[in-house]
Amino acid sequence: MTDLDVEAVDDIDAPTGVDAPEYVLYGGKGGVGKTTCAAATALASARDDTATLVVSTDPAHSLSDTLETDIPAEPTRIREDMPLFAAEIDPEAAMGEGPLGMEDDALGGLGGMLGGGGPMGGEDPIGGEDGILGGSMPGADEAAAMRLLLDYTDDDRFDRVVIDTAPTGHTLRLLELPETMDSMVGTILKLRERFSGMMDSVTGMFGGDDDVDAEAGIQDLEELSARIERLRAILQDPTRTDFRIVMVPETLSVMESERLLAQLTDFEIPVSTIVVNRVMQDPSEVLGREVGIPGPNTDGCEFCARRWDVQQDAIASAQDLFRGHEVKRVPLFADEVHGEALLSVVAACLD
Predict the structure, then answer these.
(1) Which ranges in 283-351 belong to alpha helices (H)?
(2) Cα gap 236→230, rounded to integer Å
(3) Which class for 182: exposed (0-12), middle (13-18), buried (19 or more C-beta within 10 A)?
(4) Residue 105 pLDDT more than 90?
(5) Minimal CB count within 10 Å: which of 84, 114, 215, 242?
(6) Are the C-beta atoms of residues 64 and 70 closer than 8 Å to each other?
(7) Which of 75-84, 111-120, 213-222, 322-331 has the least mean pLDDT?
(8) Of 88, 68, 67, 65, whose CA–CA distance to 76 is shortest?
(9) Contact, 166 vs 139, CB < 8 A?
């Protein structure tokens, strides 16, 4: 970026604060710019002294690059001049603690059955080699992310949490987990009750007392179930959550976003905003005021003109399909969007 461009960007009034509920989730197909939107929103949110956490559940970990700072796995303040916190979840590392954040013996006698060994210390746990709660269980990385999101919703350090979600398929499994896990917890409690009766007979014959561990395990599961219910209620409350779908102006992306919206509607997840990213319009035209940032030359460049024709068709389809939702446009920039300057422009487009 040239010095002239930097000066032009610096002249833009960076949005202070955002009109959004406590939880803002950006979702959509991989590579459409969810991280950029999440980082821009979080920066704008923190500028009015709103304690804001931006967190990525995408294994690609591009949030550090976008904000131009190393971001750890635990929420950490990354700016001294504003209360901006960030975290990048490493699902594999989180799984090392157990997908639900419970100790290996938290389930009492069922710990081995559900993962990491058979009921008597053997090698055939329920669900296969790794058990139904561990190892290579489908959706295990989403389980780890969900556990951490449960922590963030209970964390009074943050007034707003902005989430850069994983690509569409992963996101949907994550959103499906509360109901799946709730059912799983109920099943575990029933199994634990049955297994506890058998273990009582065994301990009665050979001595020992497993009641304390059993009760602790059941209490842990009941607490987890209650937290899952709270999270589900938050995600379905339009006064507390806004799931924003990000797409690019291409036919396939429009179709993917339409499917995502339908599925989110089935999950009763509120969606108020559709973000069309990388639009080949002059930034000044998108923002409605002169900003001095170079845009595509659709008059003198045949390639640009043809791409703009394709994009206009896709945008028209999006406007028609997503009636009742606010459709925001973010222009395609000549430079990669990272650092506060261009993120301020993106935030202005999303404002």
Answers:
(1) 283-287, 302-321, 340-350
(2) 10
(3) middle
(4) no
(5) 215
(6) yes
(7) 111-120
(8) 88
(9) no
Which pairing describes strands 273-279 and 241-247: parallel, antiparallel, or unpaired? parallel
Residues 6+ away with beta carbon under 8 Å from 39: 54, 63, 66, 67, 164, 343
How confident is residue 213, by pLDDT bands cut at 50, 70 and 90?
low
Tokens standing for residue 144: 């780890």
> How many Cα atoms within 13 Å fall on the side-chain side of residue 88?
17
Tokens representing 286 are 């998108």
CA-CA distance, 191 to 4, in Å (whole number)?
Answer: 68
Pairing relation of β-strands 76-77 and 84-88? Answer: antiparallel
pLDDT single digits (tens) 43-79? 999 999 999 999 987 666 789 999 999 999 889 999 9
Alpha-carbon torsion angle 52, 232, 154, 165, nearest 10:
-40
How many angstroms separate the CA atoms of 3 and 160, rounded?
Answer: 34
CA distance 236 to 174: 14
Distance CA 238, CA 319 (A): 22
Tell me the two tokens of residue 337. Answer: 């969007």
Q: Find residue 56's DSSP bridge partners.
A: 88, 164
Q: Cβ–Cβ contacts within 10 Å for residue 151, how many?
A: 13
Amino acid at 69: T
Q: Which residue is associated with the tokens 């429009």?
A: 254
The structure tokens listed for 207 are 């001595």
> Residue 68 carries which DSSP code?
T
H helices within 154-210, ranges in order? 168-206
Q: Could you tell me the pTM of the whole model? A: 0.79
